[in-house]
Each structure stands twice: as C-alpha cells, then as structure tokens.
C-alpha cells in the first residue's frame, strides 16, 4: 500500500484542481502522478481523517475539532477546503485562523477537543502546502496511522466528499486562542523565567519567517521583558519562508558579513542584515556592559527555533541550532534530583547527547521527526505519573513495529488518562531535533479548570527556555569574550555534515535494494581506512526501516553514518556525525559515500534533474551560471534550482547567476558526460 505522508504529515507544491495540466485528474491521481496537492485533496484528506475517527468510535459526531494555518494561502483556497472537509466529516470546527502550529494542540487540550489539524508546509517554500494532524492529547500520527489514513483517502472518491452535507458549524476562536497562547507562554512554569532573568539587556531581532508567528511573537516577547524587540519578515502575503526563516540557516554554523551583501548566500535576509546593523551599533555596549544582540529565527508555522548571537569580537553571527539550545535547556535542570531524560534524533550532534549524559540525563535516540520525540515524551510522563498498568500497555504499544498514535489514544480513553499535572516535579524531559524542534513539558489550565501536562514542538517556548537557561549560566567573573563563547557553545561541538542529492528516484533507496547494497559497500570501504576499529554496527529503527544507520566505534572515537530519503522534499541525504578532531577524515568519508550514491539515485526523468544537468554544463561553458532561466523554468523555479544545485548540493560556488562550478560541480560534470555516453 502507498503511504502518502512524509516525515510530518502530507506536504507538496499546490495546484488548483482546475489547472489544465491536471486534465481532470482526481485529487489522489494529481498527488501521485504530478506530485501536487489540490484544494480537493485537502478537503478529501480532512474528511477522511474525521470519518475514520467517527466510524472507529474514537470520537463522537459533533465533537469539536481545532484548525489553524500559516499565512501561505492568503486567498483561503486550501484552508476553506480543509474546513469544508471537517464539516462534511461530521465535526464542529474551532477555527484559529493564522496561528502557530503548537497553538492548535494547545487550544485543543484547553477545550477538550477531539483533535487538531494545521494547514501548513512548515519550513518549505511558499509554493508548498500541507496538513499536520494531532490526536486528542497532542501526539502526531505515526507511520501505521499514516498508512491507514492513506488507504481511506485512496479508496474514497472525491464525489462522495463533494456531494456530502456539511453537518457541523464553524466557530471563530482566533482571539481566545491567541490570548491563551500568550498566557501559556508567559507563565513562569512554562517560560522558566524568574525575577533574576535580565532580559532587559537583550535586543532581540525576530525573524517570523513571514509565517504564523507574525501575529503574536512581537507582543509576547515584549511582555516577557526583552529590552528591545525588532520584528522582521512578518508579512502575511503568502511569502512564507521566502529569504527568511530557519531553513535559510540550515547547514551553517556562522553568518559572516559577506553572506548578507548582494550576491551572498543570505542576500535579502532582513533579520540577518538587521542583526549585523544593530550589533555593530551596540558593539561597545555588548563588550563593556554585557548587552546582547540576538536573533530569534522561526519557521513558517512557528514550531522550530534557532538562536543567532552577534559576536562583537569577530563581527560575525553565531548560530545555535536545536542541538545547542537543547543542551542549554538540559543544563538548566542539571542539578535537579528528578529523573532526567534527554531525547534527540539521529540528525543531532553526537556530542550533544554526551554533554547531556555528563549532566546526569539518560539518553535515547529516535528516528527523524518530532513525532517520535512526542511519543517517547508521552511514555516517560506516564511512567512517572500514570498507573503501572497503563504505562505497561502504552510502553508495549510504543515499542511495537506497528505503533499507532490512534491506538495509544484508545488506551488512554479506555483508562481515563488525561495527563493531569498532579506534580510538576516528577521528571525533567528535554527533547530536541537539530532542525530546531525542541519539546519540553508545559502546563495548561483547561477551560474545565483542570491543570494538564502538554508537550509539542513550540518555537516560542524554546526561545524563552533557551534565554532563561542561558542567563542563569552567565558568569560575571569571566571576560566578555569567554562569557560569549560559553553562551553560544554550551558543549564542545562535534562534526556534523549532510551531503544531499536532489531530484532523485526515492523508490531506489529501499532496504536491501541494489543501490542500498552498493552504498553499504562504499561505507565499508571508507571504514576499512580507519585505524583501530572495534565495532561497526547497523542500528535498525522500526519507524523508518529504509534509513541506513551505521555506528562506528574505534579505540579513540565514535562516529555514525546514516542515509535516508527526505520526508518533505525530493532529496536523499548522506549524513556523517563524529568528533570535530576527526573532521578531515569524516569529510572524506561523507564525500566518498555521497559520490558513490548520487549517480545511482538521480532521476533523469525528473525535469529538474535535466535542468540541473543543463545548468552545470552551461556554467562550465559560459564561465558562470546563466542569468536567465533555462529549460522553460519560471523565475522562481530557476532560483530554486540555483539554490538547490549551488548551496544545497555544493555544485556551484553560490546560488546566484554568475556562480562558478565548485570542485564537486566539476566532479558532477564529469559524471554527466559519462551518463550521456551511456545514453
């Protein structure tokens, strides 16, 4: 059976069902054959989710269901379709309007709704949209749930949805929900702020990613006590993540001045330009008076956060990803006598978990995706708060190869478990993805007056927690430069790099396939070059069987190599993690494995792969990337091609016209010539 979803829900470029290119195809056919989401698909998808819940007895017809969205659909075509699908499915709709993703499950818990849906494509470009789904207690759907929903979508004809009667009603809850979000965010139990937090000496540049936090972030952060809050990229015109947001900074450790000038990698990034401008203005105050000039960078739906600090000593900006912020948050609770658990994914720096373990945390690693961290968080909370019987049932389900969020909800419902906050001191939980999803327990008083534990990726909460933790670690005995270094690098960082291949045939990357076996051979060849190898072991993650994860233990260090298809984009990544002291060797390993895999997995039937080939050839011939789009691409499509070919894959020296071929690009050009000879 086909699974329609990726890492987090369903996500694709959007296209109206009336577009001539779709030629009357059904919503599912448009999705499968053209790789696009239509408004009909969104309506069908939401309808099927609600109907399957009602028909299974998981919820009652007429229950409340929460929906919010990011502002990438200013005309409301796809959000209206989602609301219609929910209404036709048989629930009342509590509409939050433009709202950050974490507010949807938060408000759902507040009113006791049956679940929540967010219409968003998260960090993806403006041309994308998608659907994220939360269960009653805030879990995300897991692969087995995805498969069940995919089956319902594929067997349900759109005519059934089109002709269905709208059974429920729509209620505007935008104002109330934003008020609750503000109260929740500023509650000291959730923000970790106390009277000693010196936020007044922080100038904060907010990059709202032209997304869901454009509405609320500035007001909440001003009330939190930051000295000066400057909000950038807060347009609601649909330009979500365009030259802004977390995705712009992925793969970078620092931002240098040359990156923000015209033609630089971050040219047009308003937040980074303002960070340098204000940082330079306040340089003396930063050095002499302990002032801080920082940026808070979110993604389009507000569930991810990076912190960026201006360094007055080197005139650069230092990026703190989810690894650094989570370690800071872990150190905040290091002296607690509570049981402590640090959860991160395979994407994270191996050194982050080492630091957490040194601080007294038990460590667990998961597949990619905050849904797995949410699952482990729920299990751990029940271990310390729930009955032993319920905990055993949930733990058994969580460890099953076919673990289901809906099945977990069934167990919770049958045992009347509501995650009540009987004690806020039971366990210290820090969950994190390198990409900026940080998950820590929060506390919410519901409309019924009951205090409950909530947990979800929340960029704003992560920001507040990171500053609370960082300010507590400030040591006035240190020099200004040492204080800065300690703040932005709370642990000795390891080596962490990803090599992407875009425009690939993902179906070729499957456990046991020819491509899989050839790539294992390439990894073994590289491992054999190492000295004193004690153990090489493959770790299998049941939730993502088609991820190859190999750990390497030598007498002196530990490292890992893992390869997986992206769940949200048409790319496959080779990822290497290990100690920074071995970066040269690890770079060679990653480069070799990437060069072995890329030619095997490129999909030359993909128009973008063909355009990439022509771009590289023309760049070589003309001495620079062409200024005008090629292969019939639109200007935005060509800009995407330049970015993915130049920056993401490293085949060009930049992402702008005139960029030259890099060494990797010259290698790929030779590969193109070999491919053409074969063809």
UniProtKB/TrEMBL annotation:
One GO term of the biological process aspect: carbohydrate metabolic process
Organism of provenance: hydrothermal vent metagenome
InterPro entries, alphabetized: A-D-PHexomutase_a/b/a-I, A-D-PHexomutase_a/b/a-I/II/III, A-D-PHexomutase_CS, Alpha-D-phosphohexomutase_SF, Phosphoglucosamine_mutase
Record-stated family: Belongs to the phosphohexose mutase family.
Ranges for domain Alpha-D-phosphohexomutase alpha/beta/alpha: 36-153
Record Pfam families: PGM_PMM_I (PF02878)
GO molecular function: magnesium ion binding; phosphomannomutase activity
Keywords, ordered alphabetically: Phosphoprotein
Name of the protein in question: Alpha-D-phosphohexomutase alpha/beta/alpha domain-containing protein
Necessary cofactors: Mg(2+)
